[in-house]
Specification:
Radius of gyration of chain A: 13 Å
Radius of gyration of chain B: 13 Å
Shape of chain B: globular
Strand content of chain A: over 45%
Largest sheet of chain A: 7 strands, mixed
Order of helices and strands of chain A: EEEEEEEEEEE
Number of strands of chain B: 11
Strand content of chain B: over 45%
Number of strands of chain A: 11
Largest sheet of chain B: 7 strands, mixed
Number of helices of chain B: 0
Helix content of chain B: under 10%
Oligomer: heterodimer
Helix content of chain A: under 10%
Distance between the termini of chain B: 40 Å
C-alpha cells in the first residue's frame, strides 16, 4: 500500500500567517493527490484536486503544489474560518490512502 | 444542488449485520462512480470501497474484503454498504462520496455506526 506521510500533525498559527502542510508519498503517485478540509463535526470538503487545481468555490488563498511523491497545501493568509483539520489523499493506486491529517489551530 | 444523504447507522452488536444507504439527488447518479469513506472517532479518514458508475467494477480495502459489500441501484439513485460480521474496529462515521472527474468531489453528512456489545 502507498503510505501518505503528512506533516505536521498539528500546528498553531496566527491570523495572516502563511501555512504550509506537506504530504510525502511512499512511491510515485503522479499528480493524483487531493486535499480536503474538515471542520469540527462536519464532512470533509475538497479544496484541491490533481495536486494543483483549486476546487469550485474555494478561496484563492488556498493553493496546492507538487508531483510524484512530494505535495504541499498552502494557505497564503490565514483566516479564522480556516481553523480545521486538513487531509491529503492519493488516488493513483488502490487502496487509496489518506494522510494522517493536520490539525490547524489559531495561536 | 448535489445532495448525498446517508441513513441506516446506529448501535449494533459485534458479529451482526447492518446496511447503510446513501440517497443521491441533484445530479445524474448513473453517470458517476461512488465510494464509502469512514472515520473512526478522533482518527483520520479511511477509504473503504469504490463502485463504478455502471456497477461493473468494485474495489475494497483488504481489511473489509469479504465482510463489507458496496452496491448501487441506479434506478433509485441510491448507494449501499452491506456490513456483515461487524467488529469493534468498524466503529466509525461512514461517509458516502461521489467520484466526479477526480476523487471525492461531494460528500454526505455522514452516519455513525457503533459496534458494541
Amino acid at each position: 500500500d502507498i503510505q501518505m506521510t503528512q506533516s505536521p500533525s498539528s500546528m498553531s498559527m496566527s491570523l495572516g500567517d502563511t501555512v504550509t502542510i506537506t504530504c510525502r508519498a511512499s512511491q510515485d503517485v503522479g499528480i493524483y493527490v487531493n486535499w480536503f478540509q474538515q471542520k469540527p463535526g462536519k464532512s470533509p470538503r475538497r479544496l484541491i484536486y490533481r495536486a494543483t487545481n483549486l476546487a469550485d468555490g474555494v478561496p484563492s488563498r488556498f493553493s496546492g503544489s507538487g508531483s510524484r511523491s512530494d505535495f504541499s497545501l498552502t494557505i497564503s493568509s490565514l483566516e479564522s474560518e480556516d481553523v480545521a483539520d486538513y487531509h491529503c489523499l492519493q488516488y493513483d493506486e488502490y487502496p487509496w490512502t489518506f494522510g494522517g491529517g493536520t490539525k490547524l489551530e489559531l495561536k | 444542488e448535489v445532495q448525498l444523504v446517508e441513513s441506516g447507522g446506529g448501535l449494533v452488536q459485534p458479529g451482526r449485520s447492518m446496511k447503510l444507504s446513501c440517497a443521491a439527488s441533484g445530479f445524474n447518479f448513473s453517470n458517476y462512480g461512488m465510494a464509502w469513506v469512514r472515520q473512526a472517532p478522533t482518527k483520520g479518514l479511511e477509504w473503504i470501497a469504490t463502485i463504478s458508475y455502471d456497477d461493473t467494477s468494485t474495489y475494497y480495502r483488504d481489511s473489509v474484503k469479504g465482510r463489507l459489500t458496496i452496491s448501487r441501484d441506479n434506478a433509485k439513485s441510491t448507494l449501499y454498504l452491506q456490513m456483515n460480521s461487524l467488529r469493534s474496529e468498524d466503529t466509525a462515521t461512514y461517509y458516502c462520496t461521489r467520484m466526479g472527474l477526480t476523487a471525492f468531489d461531494y460528500w454526505g453528512q455522514g452516519v455513525m455506526v457503533t459496534v458494541s456489545p
